[in-house]
Amino acid sequence: MTDSKKPTHRAFVVKNFTDKEGQQKSHWHRIGSVWPHHDGKGFNVTLESLPTGGRLVLRLDERKAVA
Questions:
Q1: CB 66 within 8 A of CB 14
Q2: How many structural domains compose the chain?
Q3: How far apart are CA 16 and CA 13, in angstroms?
Q4: What is the pLDDT of residue 44?
Q5: How far apart are CA 23 and CA 34, in angstroms?
Q6: Quick one: which of 15, 12, 14, 53 has its CA closest to 34?
Q7: For residues 17, 61, 33 and 18, what is the CA-based torsion angle, rounded to 10 degrees?
Q8: What pTM was computed for the model?
Q9: Cβ-based neighbours of 54, under 8 Å, separated by 6 or more
Q10: Domain limits at 50?
């Protein structure tokens, strides 16, 4: 699918919590990078740390370009 050396997605662990005002919030912590397989049927995931709770989320890497 792609021969890019840059990851197409980022891996996050997301933990929900309630703040001091009683509002539901989420903390997103980036833990890795994701590359699609060449045939488009899977992904390689490189994790820099392992989540011990929360949920694992893979998102498109949409970082803004720095001018």
A1: no
A2: 1
A3: 10
A4: 95
A5: 32
A6: 12
A7: 0
A8: 0.79
A9: 13, 14, 15, 16
A10: 9-60
Adjacent-strand bridge partners of 35: 44
β-partners of residue 32 are 11, 47
Structure token digits, residue 65: 């370009």
| Alpha-carbon dihedral sign for residues 44, 46, 52, 54 | negative
Q: How many residues does the chain have?
A: 67
> Is 21 within the bounds of a domain?
yes
Say if 4 falls within a structural domain.
no
> Position 43: which residue type?
F
Q: What is the pLDDT of residues 6-62, one digit of tens each?
A: 899 999 999 999 999 999 999 999 999 999 999 989 999 999 998 888 999 999 998
Whether 20 is in a domain gets the answer: yes
Amino acid at 5: K
54 neighbors 44 (Cβ within 8 angstroms): no
